[in-house]
Specification:
two-stranded antiparallel sheet, mainly alpha
Length: 427
């Protein structure tokens, strides 16, 4: 039985060609680094500046950098520069700039923190636009759900493992022994991540990825179908900003510090990793709207429980605070809902790139670029919503209600996914 399961999984993996398998392996390695770029860079800024708004300002820089990186990637591809070099440079820059920030940032840096977010986002933008384009080239409609599930499996696994190793083991060890403090721990971990990316770069340079022939990729006007896709992506981008920045801030401000963050990540990851992988194997295009709707409802449920518990400091059995349990419930909800939403988004995005390219007779990179721009517009809007609630209500109030808002927005996304999936384009 076990042998049959392994053989079936191998057959599923073999639906990808040699370059597709290389891309998956490279992305798995990047998934090891990505939690540090996003989760712990947010936590680091919050610790170094003592101001959670600074973490959002850093996030704005990150989102703006992503847009600039996407544009740079397209311009370099137009000049026929090898995509392997561009892709590798983006990977290396995204973590190297995070390392530089952790070496230089002090509690007096103020709003110039946006520069480090900008630099990290710039490298990430080059990387992600290249990754999206290569993913479109190496996948087919039949295996795009599976490809998206492998990506989410790796992201969830390492989003749990890295915070546990770093937050729970490394920082806790430093505190207990006095050999290093939290800032030194961040710096050392960032240096290790640079080495991991260097290894990934070596793998990319040994690959046979081919640079596309791009004539033009910037347009203002699009078809009705792609404009609907743009609205869908903005809504997902708003949710993405919540997951990237608000979950770490919620845990650090309500539940504790980095050691708590690590414990929560590792203990909750098992809830979702196998489910996500299996969904990728058994679902098809017509299931994407249902996955999106399910994820939205679960996120709203987690946000509702959190909103009713976050201000209640009564003790349960004189040990656990209800507010802490609310954070735990919200984190569990996020670990189930986010992969469902992102799986649906990623597979729908790859399908829509192909549809729009045929409908409008434009290069497919046009839609990769526009999609990344639109996604980051959504992330910036999400950050602005958070800051508005932060000032009009309270810092904790912003964290208290933001997840209900994010979940409600994704219900609209599920309706759009259903409509977009129904669009048929003649080959």
């Amino acid at each position: 039985m076990l042998i049959n399961i392994i053989q079936n999984e191998k057959k599923a993996f073999d639906t990808f060609d040699k370059d597709g398998k290389r891309l998956i392996i490279t992305n798995i390695l990047y998934s090891m680094v990505f939690p540090f770029i996003v989760i712990f860079s947010t936590a680091f800024v919050n610790r170094a500046t003592g101001n959670q708004v600074m973490a959002i300002v850093n996030g704005f820089g990150f989102s703006i950098g992503l847009i600039l990186g996407n544009y740079t990637n397209g311009m370099l591809l137009r000049k026929n520069i090898n995509i392997r070099y561009i892709f590798s440079t983006g990977m290396l820059l995204s973590i190297a700039s995070t390392f530089i920030m952790m070496m230089l940032v002090k509690d007096t840096i103020g709003y110039s923190i946006i520069f480090f977010g900008l630099l990290t986002g710039y490298g990430s933008g080059i990387y992600w636009s290249g990754r999206q384009y290569l993913a479109y080239l190496v996948t087919k409609e039949e295996n795009r759900n599976f490809y998206a599930s492998i990506e989410q499996f790796a992201i969830i696994f390492f989003n749990a493992l890295i915070p546990f190793l770093f937050g729970t083991l490394i920082i806790k060890y430093g505190r207990r022994t006095g050999y290093f403090d939290e800032i030194m721990a961040y710096q050392g971990m960032a240096a290790f991540m640079v080495l991991m990316i260097i290894y990934a770069v070596v793998l990319v340079l040994k690959s046979s990825f081919k640079s596309p022939d791009i004539k033009r990729f910037t347009y203002w006007k699009f078809s009705k179908m792609w404009n609907m896709h743009r609205l869908f992506v903005v809504l997902v981008g708003i949710m993405s900003s919540g997951i990237m920045f608000f979950i770490p801030l919620l845990i650090l401000n309500v539940a504790g510090d980095e050691t708590v963050l690590g414990k929560i990540e590792i203990s909750m990851a098992a809830i979702s990793v196998m489910v996500i992988y299996l969904l990728g194997r058994i679902t098809s295009a017509e299931h994407r709207a249902k996955m999106m709707m399910t994820g939205a409802i679960i996120m709203m449920l987690g946000g509702t429980v959190l909103s009713f518990t976050i201000h209640n400091n009564d003790l349960i059995f004189s040990v656990l605070k209800i507010s802490f349990l609310g954070v735990i419930f919200m984190k569990a909800s996020q670990l189930i809902s986010e992969p469902l939403i992102i799986m649906s988004y990623a597979a729908t995005n790859l399908s829509n790139i192909g549809k729009a390219s045929k409908l409008e007779n434009r290069d497919s990179y046009t839609y990769v670029f526009d999609n990344e721009i639109t996604m980051n517009i959504g992330r910036i809007i999400g950050g602005l919503v958070f800051i508005a609630i932060n000032f009009w209500v309270s810092p904790i109030g912003a964290l208290q209600f933001i997840f209900i808002i994010l979940g409600a927005i994704q219900i609209i996304s599920s309706i759009l996914v259903k409509k977009l999936t129904a669009v048929k384009v003649n080959k």
